[in-house]
Specification:
This protein is mainly β. The chain has four helices and 22 strands.
Length: about 325
């Protein structure tokens, strides 16, 4: 390997330059992903009445998150665990046309008027569920459930936003950033800030100012230095915002089939080979039925996108070689 053993001053300088460039590239790009094109892998459709009376789609209308090999979904009144193939394993709460709604939200929370779960996140075996009241959406909370069996931990926190957006529906979703020890929320109305909360007690910390305003954000998840946001806007857009400088980029736009559409939550899962998978929920109301529970065509479309081209990091061999060159230079200078 002549590029390691070369001893000519010019060659050594060139090698050191390449080492420096590689180290700088690693520092500047990790752990972000390249802004490449996402590929649509497939779509799963969950209908309300397939099989008849199952209401499968209802239980996947608000949000979702990855939990190991399983998925956690949320609906207005509860949660659902599925396996990797989206087969139901367990649910909290139920819906029936004959008996009505049996809430999966604990009675202690319902008593406070908290009757709406939004998008969720999962970390360290705990589901972080956004909660609010449909009576004005002015009581944002986050409640903690066990991802193993959907049981309520007994812990919930009221969220207080910044002075610029106090209690303005900042619990349509919550996202966890375990690496930074914080959680995030945002007002549903148009705005250019993200609220940052201390993860241990969801007390307000500060805001992140975005490079542009975003509205109708229905779900979000964090990967590295980026937070991915699902917007129920006219273009059904997915954005990402950089958590270090607030830069906003539009990542993709969902298909727009015929009918009324509503963007909901999203989930991200990083595979061992570096591939990033994104799943996005969209309610499709082809008959303009105002999401009637008797409409057999009403369903949730779950789009699966994939980003295979992640930012390459310098190989371990290159990093080791850089270290050996630097060590060799130091030893030569010491001997002289």
């Amino acid at each position: 390997m002549p590029f390691i053993t070369a001893s000519r001053p010019g060659a050594r300088a060139g090698w050191l330059g390449r080492c420096a460039a590689a180290l700088a590239l690693s520092a500047s790009l990790s752990p972000a992903f390249a802004a490449d094109t996402w590929s649509l892998v497939g779509t799963d459709n969950f209908y309300l009445h397939n099989p008849p009376g199952s209401f499968t789609g209802v239980y996947r209308t608000q949000g979702m998150a990855s939990s190991g090999d399983n998925w956690i979904f949320s609906w207005q009144y509860g949660l659902e665990i599925t396996d990797g193939g989206f087969n139901t394993l367990q649910r909290s709460g139920s819906l029936s046309l004959s008996t009505g709604i049996t809430p999966g939200i604990p009675s202690s929370l319902l008593a406070q008027g908290l009757d709406h779960i939004g998008d969720i996140d999962v970390h360290n075996g705990i589901i972080y569920a956004s909660l609010d009241s449909t009576n004005g959406y002015k009581q944002p909370h986050v409640a903690l459930f066990n991802a193993s069996d959907l049981s309520y931990t007994g812990t919930s926190y009221a969220l207080t936003g910044a002075a610029s957006n106090p209690s303005n529906d900042i619990a349509s979703w919550v996202a966890v950033d375990a690496a930074r020890g914080v959680g995030y929320g945002k007002e549903w109305a148009n705005g250019n800030t993200i609220n940052v909360y201390n993860l241990d007690d969801w007390s307000f910390s500060h805001t992140i100012t975005l490079s542009e305003s975003l509205k109708r954000i229905q779900g979000a998840k964090v990967v590295g230095d980026w937070i991915y946001l699902a917007s129920d806007n006219d273009t059904q857009s997915i954005y990402r915002a950089n958590l270090t400088n607030g830069l906003v980029e539009e990542v993709l736009r969902l298909p727009q089939p015929s009918g009324d559409l509503e963007m909901e939550g999203l989930a991200l899962r990083l595979q061992a080979n570096g591939t990033l998978d994104m799943y996005i929920e969209q309610i499709v109301d082809p008959n303009h039925s105002d999401q009637s529970l008797t409409d057999t065509d009403l369903h949730v479309a779950l789009y699966h996108y994939q980003l295979a081209a992640t930012v390459p990091e310098p190989s371990a061999a290159l990093m080791l070689a850089c270290g050996l060159v630097v060590l060799g230079l130091v030893r030569r200078r010491t001997v002289r």
